[in-house]
Amino acid sequence: MEFSEAKKHFISTWGELGMNWGINRTMGHIHALLLISPKPLCAEDIINQLQISKGNANMNLRGLLDWRLIYRQSKAGDRKDYFVAEKELWKVFRKTLEKRKQKELNPMLDMIKKISNVQGDSEDSNEFNRFIKDLDAISSAADNALDRLITSDSNIFLNTLVKIMR
User: Fold this and answer.
1) What is the pTM of this model?
2) Dihedral sign, CA of 5, 15, 31, 96?
3) Which of 27, 47, 89, 159 is the most interior residue, by most CB within 10 Å?
4) Closest by CA position to 143, among listed 115, 111, 114, 102
5) Going residue by residue through the chain (166 aa), what tens digit of pLDDT does each one get?
6) Can you tell me the distance from the alpha carbon of 125 to that of 147, in angstroms, rounded to the nearest whole number?
7) DSSP 3-state of 24
């Protein structure tokens, strides 16, 4: 496969995968382009290479900055902002986990705190409380596991994963 074809395939697939991680397709395309770029790219470069609008590029660049998957850089004598991706994949993985936890698990934990211990002694309220207690146990365990994973060293995680898979 030629480079240009492989590059297109990678960018396209990364965009599709990104949708599973909680980012939109275009944000995934921009992230992929920056991951494989040997040098920082300005918004104009990104727009030209991906054939997207300026507004779409700017909105998705802000999103990637918010996820801390890319960084803004400046060049001396140039007023443009340039962007570079975090290329250490363990950091990308951890930052993605952090953001997903913040967007998905933390609201669940907040909701559980608000609705725990519903008053009443009916079959419905007892079943509700039982379910919320189980949900709290699983959500809290996931929260603790994710916190450990996010703060762990990549070698510790990979070594543990290899042991589990044996």
Assistant:
1) 0.77
2) negative
3) 27
4) 102
5) 899 999 999 999 999 998 888 789 999 999 999 999 999 999 999 999 999 999 999 999 999 999 999 999 998 888 999 999 999 988 888 888 898 899 889 999 999 999 987 788 899 989 999 999 999 999 999 999 888 888 887 666 566 655 666 6
6) 32
7) coil
